[in-house]
Design goal:
Two copies of one chain form a homodimer. With 118 residues, chain A is mainly α. In chain A, strands 1-3-2 form a three-stranded antiparallel sheet. Chain A starts with a helix and ends in a 30-residue tail after the last helix. The relative contact order of chain A is 0.15. The C terminus of chain A is likely disordered. At the A-B interface, helix 1, helix 2 and helix 5 of A face helix 1, helix 2 and helix 5 of B. Chain B binds a DNA duplex (30 and 30 nucleotides) through helix 3 and helix 4.
Chain lengths: 118, 118
DNA sequence: AACGCAATTCGATATTTCTTGAAATATCGT
DNA sequence: ACGATATTTCAAGAAATATCGAATTGCGTT
C-alpha cells in the first residue's frame, strides 16, 4: 500500500498553491507558520487555504499544531524524504553497472551557502 | 517559471498508473522499455497507456526513442533529480542551525544488493 | 455570557483529468 | 504494394478536483 500513499503525496504537491505553500513551509523549517500568514502570503481566501492544507496534511506532508487561536503548519521532512526514496528506489535495478544516472543530487543542502538557483 | 514545470512533473507522477510506469522505467535504467511491454505489465489498454506516457513525456520525466516498430520509453534521471532539488531547495532557510531535519536520505541506491520489495 | 478573532466545514458551481473503443499512422517482411 | 504489428490520435462520456462565500466551531478576553 505504499504506492497509494505516494500517489496521495505527489497529488498533494501537484498544484500551484499547494506547492508554493509546501515550499514556504520547507524553507521556514520545523516551526512552521500559522494558517493566516500562509493565506496572506499566497493571497487566497482562508477557506481555499484550508482545503489545500488538508490535502497536504492528509498526505502526511505537513503537520498541524495549535498555539492559542492559531493553527501552525509545518513541513514533515521525514515524509518528504520518504517520498523521494520511493521514487528512486532500486534505481537501474540496483546494478552497479548503471553509470552515473542514479547519482543523487545531494538533496537538502543545509551545509551549503545559500543558493537559490535550483 | 520553474514552479509550473514542477507542478507538471508532480502531477504527472500523481497517478496510480503513471507512478507505476515511471518506477518501472526507473528500475529498468537508461535502456527503458517498449510501450507494448509497459502496457502489458500494467494491464491497461494501449490507448490508455499512451495517454499516461504522454503526460510523463510532456513533463520531461521520460524520453522516447523509436527502435524499428517499437517505441522505447526511458526515465529521465536528470529531470527526476531536478524535481527533488526543487522541492527541498533552501530547506530551513539555509540555516545551519536547522538540525537534522533537512538531512537527505541518500536517494538512489545503486550500491545495494537487489531488493524487490516494492 | 457575550464578543471578536482564527480557522474550518458546508454546499453548489466550475473546471480539469481519466478512460477506452474506433480509426489513423508508422514500420517491417514478403 | 499488401498485410501484419506497434503505437498514437480522436472523441465524448464519466469521474475527480478546485473555488470560495456563508455559516460554524474553537479559543481567548472582558
Amino acid at each position: 500500500m505504499k504506492a497509494k500513499e505516494t500517489v496521495d503525496a505527489l497529488g498533494a504537491l501537484a498544484h500551484d498553491t499547494r506547492l508554493e505553500a509546501f515550499r514556504l513551509l520547507v524553507q521556514k523549517g520545523p516551526d512552521g507558520l500559522p494558517a493566516g500568514m500562509i493565506a496572506e502570503k499566497l493571497g487566497i481566501p482562508p477557506s481555499s487555504l484550508t482545503f489545500h492544507l488538508q490535502q497536504l496534511a492528509h498526505a502526511g506532508l505537513v503537520t498541524q499544531r495549535r498555539v492559542s487561536r492559531q493553527l501552525f503548519y509545518a513541513a514533515d521532512f521525514a515524509a518528504m524524504n520518504g517520498l523521494v526514496a520511493y521514487l528512486t528506489e532500486n534505481c537501474c535495478g540496483g546494478e552497479t553497472a548503471c553509470g552515473p544516472v542514479c547519482e543523487p543530487v545531494k538533496i537538502a543542502i543545509k551545509s551549503q551557502p545559500k543558493r537559490r538557483s535550483a
